[in-house]
Specification:
This protein has helices spanning 3-12, 31-43, 63-70, and strands spanning 16-17, 48-49. By secondary structure, the chain is mainly α. The chain is elongated and about 50 Å long.
Length: 71
């Protein structure tokens, strides 16, 4: 196997989190809550975050919101 494959394989052996996207009462992305959620995951040892994954409500987000969540 190639070194690149082994690197990818090792990275995927860890926990991969697909965080939800929290929304404010007005329907916008709650950036503060999202930041807090990501910080909690990272502080807990999660090394791989997948924004806009299947539990991230990507289908309900406008392109600008998807970009915001990714940034």
């Amino acid at each position: 196997m190639t070194a690149a494959f082994e690197t990818q394989r090792a990275a995927l052996a860890d926990v991969v989190a697909i965080p939800v996207t929290p929304f404010a009462e007005d329907g916008s992305v709650d950036q503060g809550a999202h930041r807090d959620l990501l910080r909690r995951l990272l502080d807990g040892g999660v090394r791989i975050l997948t924004p806009n994954g299947n539990t991230g409500e990507f289908y309900a987000l406008a392109p600008e919101e998807r970009r915001l969540v990714t940034e």
